[in-house]
Design brief:
The protein is mostly beta strands. The chain has 2 helices and 13 strands. The strands form 4 sheets. Strands 1-7-3-4 form a 4-stranded antiparallel sheet, with no helix packed on it.
């Protein structure tokens, strides 16, 4: 008899306990992005980067990088463009595998204002690339590279930005070695580049 009562009690408690689920989306109030290396068609068509911000509600956002900063009102259901200063954000291939101070692009909603979604668009001549930027609260701690060997002999790379101060990166290279990189400030950037024409898948 006692066993039956105990079983019913456990069953009752398990059904009345609060159930928590994952509720993560691309909407947030704090984002970090990078303006990575972009091989131009010619020196006359260097790449630029625009951040696009949209929201379901009226809100306000500041986009900053180095000395560049711009604050704009975001009307509900409208995409607003921020043209980020290339000199403040761009990561040149010659700067690869070095710590770049304050080169990350910070997208921050004014405190107390509604959430937004953020996107970046890199464009130059006939070349174009776009990215959905995930907010801070959705970020994890383990990532795997997925890319492809560049047939024209170019470089594959990983562009990494610290979302928090004193971030330590452990880059597990394909050779089996582990490269340790410490980014002291939120917004510091590290662009990891492998050997020419290398596939970094799995790093």
């Amino acid at each position: 008899m006692n066993k039956v009562v105990l079983f019913i009690l456990i069953l009752f408690v398990s059904f009345t306990s609060r159930v928590l689920g994952q509720n993560i989306s691309n909407e947030g109030t704090n984002f970090w992005a990078v303006f990575p290396t972009h091989v131009p068609n010619s020196q006359a068509t260097l790449a630029n980067l625009a951040v696009f911000v949209t929201s379901k509600f009226n809100t306000e956002v500041t986009v900053s990088c180095g000395a560049y900063t711009s604050t704009k009102t975001i009307p509900a259901n409208t995409a607003v463009q921020f043209d980020v200063d290339r000199n403040a954000a761009y990561v040149n291939l010659a700067e690869a595998n070095t710590n770049l101070i304050n080169r990350g692009i910070h997208i921050k909603v004014t405190d107390g204002m509604p959430k937004v979604s953020a996107y970046t668009h890199i464009y130059a001549g006939a070349r174009s690339a776009a990215s959905l930027i995930l907010p801070f609260e959705t970020l994890g701690q383990t990532y795997y590279s997925m890319n492809y060997t560049q047939s024209a002999g170019g470089n594959n790379f990983l562009a990494l930005v610290a979302a928090e101060a004193n971030t330590t990166l452990l880059i597990h290279e394909k050779s089996g070695t582990v490269k340790t990189v410490t980014l002291v400030n939120a917004g510091d950037v590290y662009e990891y580049v492998g050997s020419t024409n290398s596939d970094l898948t799995g790093v």
